[in-house]
Design a protein that fits this description.
This is VOC domain-containing protein. It holds the Pfam family Glyoxalase_3. The protein is α+β, with helices and mostly antiparallel strands. 24% of the residues lie in helices and 35% in strands. It has an eight-stranded mixed barrel with strand order 1-4-3-2-6-7-8-5. Strands 10-11-12-9-13-15-14 form a seven-stranded mixed β-sheet. A hairpin with a 5-residue loop joins strand 3 and strand 4.
Amino acid sequence: MFACQEVFMGIGIDHLVIGVPSLEAAITAWRAAGFHVIEGGVHAGGLTHNALVVLEDGSYLELLAPTNAVRWQALRAAARVGLLDGALSGFSPIQKRMVRYALGPYGLVDFAVNVEDAAAEAEAAEARGVLMTPAIEGARARPDGREVRWITATPQDADLPFFIQDLTPREWRVPVEGAAHPNQAYSIRKLVVLARRPAETAAHYEMLLDVSPVRFDEHGILFALGAARVEVREPISDEERNALGNRAARPWALELRTHDTHMAGTVEFPPELHVPLTLVPDAL
């Protein structure tokens, strides 16, 4: 069992998506930073594969990378000449999101919230004014051959998070045995979302997730999702403005709680795998 189940009492963060150019390099870097990393497998369609950093609170970080499939050459060529939308015309909404993230720019790019019924949540979000795409089944083949299946429902606005519902037992997708880390990280404390217009993005979060902010001031808009906090704010540096690019909003920085106060501080990664990540003592 998980040491903490708070994230699943009501809507909460299921997982964060971290786009990386090379899964092998990312696994090496995250293990060097004190995390236990589990190889996740290849997604249906064969275009992306992942690895997982599972946390005690039941959430996880997904390291997502392109496979070495020849088809990526055509997708990259289409992206270079502005024809990616046409190249993705036969893809599902969630596949389109994942392909774009696997093409870069990399780092924290998306997150999912866990729900019991993705189709029902999508219908409710539509009633609150959010344009949604139909719920669709997804799958991944684990390295041990077991197939993991789920349902996702995504907003038409790809800068908003998406819903995910497990069809197979959750522990197949999120192996609990991988939740112990040398650096003692155990749960998500805060996710920072950069937004061009924070109030507008926060309003969309309210409609999508049916939650109200717990703080709304000059520092940003703060939401509580289970035991985690999501802060929506404007970029405050050139690095953050460049990271936001032409997106209306994107996840950017992450704080994880750690049981070990000696491990607290900024986690360093190679430049090509940069994620603003801080370990925070669990007393804070």
